[in-house]
Design brief:
This protein is an all-alpha fold. The protein has four domains: 160 residues, Leucine-rich Repeat Variant; 195 residues, no CATH class; 239 residues, Alpha Horseshoe (Leucine-rich Repeat Variant), CATH 1.25.10; 156 residues, Leucine-rich Repeat Variant (Alpha Horseshoe). Helices cover 71% and strands 0% of the residues. It contains 35 helices and no strands. About 1% of the residues have low confidence.
Length: 754
């Protein structure tokens, strides 16, 4: 592709490819796709996206096509690989200057340079790093920032390579630029602090951006650039400096208003400092030994004393707690039972930990966690009142354990209590003893404190096994608290039923279950929705699952099933409906055929719920699970469900329908149990077998269930079934035998034998 003649044509097609008109857009995309493998195409793209006079959208698209081309055609072994001559020209062009004015395009250029560096640096591109180092020294703000941005992306990409030879190259690179990276970071950090003190907001914002980028570079170099970093004085000097810089930035935050242009960046930089420490601890636990004492002192000071008041923010607290937790739990710091088998490094780290976690320190951490961080906040209480379903979803934590404050505090409490249970058990038991008896409903603070202490006792249930007579506590105290119906006491009702759920698998006498079921039935009629949802959770997760026999539950089956069904109808959010539906499924599964007299209302409601959940595939999965247990419980009577059941199976197992991605596994199981409980083979059951041919072509992990379904059809009515589907099955099996394992081949032969 000749550069001069092609540039105009490519520019025109790129312009068309940015059109909103599909009639213009589609042909342009097809043309660009054809050019992807043409020699010279990427040189044309380079000229276009580096020409700042052209339309931003066209330049953006040119960068994206260039970046995608690197992924596909840059490596020598790739089909239609770029020639070495063109790659040499492109590499030189990419680092000719760093003056891209548009932030988004500058980021994309930095990323694509890093992609090339991953393949070519340093062997085919030895000049890249020296060029970047020189470019970050220039005085021009724009060029300096763009070069530093590229420096970060290149460092990040090279640090992620894992082959031994690549690791060696990165170690060599790190040793050659580490001093420069440290001085660069210190320079930009000092400049920012001076400018913010002088009140120069715009200049401070620019310097803070450079501080952040240079710190990102240092993070990658420090964590991934050394085999034994503790032997390098500069590395350890930088890590010790992190604590001083953290203090400076936190103090600096006192004077920065929330709306200040630097505020958000300042908090991101503070978090990045903590990430440096966390990553280093994760990758080099023994090198971190020299930092254990300082890390614990720093974190405990800011999180558990008055030192942090007014300057710490939630994400910083989370990071500090994660740092404490990682030190407490780190296996590298735990001596073997036989001390002589432990390394000197492990013993040294353990000694430092033991010296820090004295009784007063542990007691203060425990008390502060429970009476400060465990307390329900005003925002949480407001959410409870205004949006109770969202409150219950928020409380479950989900995947947010590392990043949200409440679950993070609970995990830290569990880990510290497990590690130092002999010290902390008396502390927690004393807190419980101080709360004996019913709490004044007018004293909101006392109610929240009791809620927090009960939360701690539930989290530490396994550690407190020998120290708490839970049966006596349940009879003498907790049962009475469940019966306090005042609206302001609802946090305690909710917490007590949760607490019982935590202890039920630890220590709870069987003869107390009827009393508990009575209490649960009453709570399922509570005026507060959150209390009812928590009660349903306890019923499912911690009571029915741990009861070997259902005899004690059966007297309460009708009333509880009715109340749960009413709760299912009342809640509106998808997550909450799924939750309640799983509880109902659990009840149906446990009592099996004894559910028959009570399921009429649910059977009538499920078709409506299925229709309403058309956009919520996970809720539909919960409905499928419920149907599986319903069919098993109803047995042959499940044929009355066929008008609803068979279309559900049809949709769930039709691979031409998008929802099958979510529904297929449960749909196949429902199909199988429907056949297993069917008294005869109906025309409708025969018809849905049309889905099977495409399922067999998938050759997926669901193949075993497919074979079971085929065998179930043969068992129900072999002549009728095979008359309709034998020829198609034989063709499918012949195709299958070529690709499946010997176990799968045996399954095919079993079907044929039948």
């Amino acid at each position: 592709m000749d550069l001069n003649s092609a540039s105009t044509v490519v520019l025109q097609v790129l312009t068309q490819a940015t059109s909103q008109d599909t009639a213009v857009l589609k042909p342009a995309e097809e043309q660009l796709k054809q050019w992807e493998t043409q020699p010279g195409f990427y040189s044309v793209l380079l000229n276009i996206f580096t020409n700042h006079s052209l339309d931003v959208n066209v330049r953006w698209l040119a960068v994206l096509y260039f970046k995608n081309g690197i992924d596909r055609y840059w490596r020598r072994v790739a089909p239609h690989a770029l020639s070495e001559e063109e790659k040499t020209t492109l590499r030189a062009g990419l680092i000719t200057n760093f003056n891209e004015p548009v932030n988004q395009i500058a980021t994309q250029i930095s990323v694509l340079i890093a992609k090339v560096a991953r393949v070519d640096c340093p062997r085919q591109w030895p000049e890249l790093i020296p060029t970047l180092v020189e470019s970050v020294k220039v005085q021009d703000d724009l060029q300096q920032h763009r070069a530093l941005l590229t420096f970060y992306h290149v460092t990040k990409t090279l640090s992620s390579k894992r082959l031994a030879a690549d690791r060696k190259l990165f170690y060599d690179l790190t040793s050659s630029i580490y001093s420069f990276a440290c001085s660069l970071w210190n320079h930009h950090t000092d400049t920012f602090l001076q400018q913010i003190c002088a009140g120069n907001e715009a200049a401070a914002a620019n310097s803070l951006e450079r501080t952040l980028l240079s710190l990102k570079v240092l993070r990658k170099l420090t964590v991934h650039g050394f085999v034994e970093p503790h032997w390098n004085a500069e590395v350890m000097g930088f890590l010790h400096a992190v604590f001083e810089r953290l203090k400076q930035f936190l103090e600096c935050s006192r004077s920065i208003r929330p709306e200040h242009i630097c505020r958000d960046r300042l908090e991101k930089t503070v978090i990045l400092f903590t990430k440096v420490l966390l990553d280093f601890l994760d990758q080099h636990p023994f090198s971190f030994t020299a930092l254990i004492q300082r890390s614990l002192e720093f974190s405990v000071s800011y999180v558990f004393t008055e030192a942090g008041e007014g300057i710490v923010f939630e994400q910083f607290i989370v990071q500090c707690m994660n740092l404490i937790k990682m030190i407490v739990k780190n296996y590298a710091y735990k001596p073997s039972k036989n001390i002589e088998d432990s390394s000197p490094e492990t013993l040294e780290a353990h000694k430092i930990k033991t010296a820090f976690f004295t009784y007063p320190t542990l007691m203060e951490i425990c008390r502060r966690l429970v009476t400060h961080y465990f307390l329900l906040t005003k925002e949480e209480l407001t959410m409870w009142e205004e949006d109770p379903e969202s409150f219950t979803v928020e409380e479950t934590g989900g995947d947010s354990w590392k990043y949200s404050l409440r679950p993070c505090t609970e995990v830290l409490f569990i880990d510290i209590f497990h590690e130092y249970n002999q010290t902390l058990t008396p502390v927690l038991l004393e807190m419980v003893r101080s709360l004996q008896g019913s709490t004044n409903v007018e004293d909101t603070n006392a109610i929240l404190i009791k809620d927090a202490v009960y939360n701690a006792v539930g989290l530490a249930a396994y550690e407190l096994f020998d120290s708490v007579d839970f049966d006596q506590w349940f009879k003498n105290q907790l049962l009475a608290e469940l019966q306090v119906s005042h609206d302001r006491y609802k946090p305690i009702r909710r917490r007590v039923i949760w607490l019982i759920g935590q202890w039920i698998s630890v220590k709870f006498k069987s003869d107390l279950r009827p009393v508990l079921y009575e209490a649960i039935r009453n709570l399922l009629q509570d005026r507060d929705l959150v209390v009812r949802i928590e009660t349903a959770t306890t019923l499912k997760l911690n009571i029915l699952l741990f009861e070997k026999k259902t005899d004690q539950f059966l007297p309460y089956l009708e009333s509880m099933f009715t109340l749960l069904f009413q709760l299912l109808q009342e809640v509106t959010q998808c997550d909450t409906k799924m939750h309640v539906l799983h509880v109902l499924s659990c009840v149906i599964e446990r009592v099996n055929m004894q559910i028959r007299p009570y399921v009429g209302c649910l059977v009538q409601y499920l078709p409506l719920l299925w229709k309403q959940s058309e956009e919520h595939n996970m809720l539909r999965c919960a409905i499928l699970t419920t149907l599986i247990h319903l069919v098993q419980g109803l047995g042959a009577d499940s044929k009355n469900l066929y008008p609803f059941l068979l279309p559900v199976i049809q949709l769930s197992t039709d691979v031409s329908q998008p929802p099958h991605v979510y529904l297929l596994e449960d749909g196949l199981e429902l199909w199988l149990v429907t056949l297993e409980n069917s008294p005869c083979l109906t025309p409708e059951l025969l018809r849905i077998f049309q889905n099977m041919s495409a399922l067999l072509e998938l050759s997926s992990e669901n193949l075993k269930n497919c074979f079971k379904i085929i065998n179930a059809y043969i068992f129900l009515s072999s002549s009728e079934f095979l008359q309709m589907y034998a020829a198609g099955l034989c063709r499918s099996f012949c195709d299958l035998l070529k690709d499946i394992t010997s176990e799968g081949q045996v399954q095919v032969l079993k079907v044929e034998y039948n």
